[in-house]
Design a protein that fits this description.
alpha+beta; 6 strands; binds flavin-adenine dinucleotide
């Protein structure tokens, strides 16, 4: 039983490159052993994360993430049972929005800035798919 979950949140304080890469590294280590895959976007104090994996693993991880003091205003945007993963290539990929064509954000949003609080779950998933298609997702380290 696979599920896909997408949420958005606001960073408690601006995350520097070292803090972000530490978070990515520990996430990848944990996710690889739990069979969880996905993508994390961090831009302008906003997190947007997509998680895929077994229902128990994803639910347990999401519960832990919501308790994490490094962010707040966690909003569940989408939760679905899925037949297959779409983001199986990354234990946790990182999207670099500075490499994203602003036209792609405009395709789904009112303005060319990422505001997942104003996006539907469907639009958010479509945006993640564009991130993959335009290769702005990396898995450094
Ligand atoms: P512990 O490591 O024992 O930590 C307990 C609490 O301490 C955490 O909940 C957190 O509030 C705090 N904490 C831990 N490390 C730090 C730190 N370096 N700086 C400040 N506070 C800290 N974890 C994953 O495994 N996979 C993910 O995909 C994932 N994505 C995340 C996305 C976001 C936006 C955030 C903020 C966190 C994410 N995490 C992820 C981390 C997750 O919230 C837990 O910290 C992690 O899973 C370890 O859980 P634990 O119960 O072992 O907590």
């Amino acid at each position: 039983m696979l599920v896909r979950l997408i949420y958005a949140s606001r960073a408690a304080e601006a995350l520097g490159a070292d803090a972000l890469s530490g978070l990515m590294k520990s996430s990848r280590d944990h996710n690889a052993s739990a069979g969880v895959t996905g993508v994390l976007v961090y831009t302008d104090g906003i997190f947007l994360q997509l998680l895929e994996g077994g229902r128990n693993a994803v639910n347990a991880l999401y519960n832990r993430i919501t308790q994490d003091a490094r962010h707040h205003d966690v909003v569940l945007l989408s939760y679905d049972e899925v037949a297959e993963r779409r983001f199986s290539g990354w234990a946790m990929g990182q999207a670099n929005l500075s490499r994203l064509n602003p036209g792609i954000l405009l395709k789904y949003s009112e303005r060319a800035v990422l505001d997942p609080y104003a996006l539907s779950g469907k639009a958010t998933l479509a945006l993640f798919e564009e991130l993959v298609a335009t290769a702005v997702i990396a898995c450094p380290g």
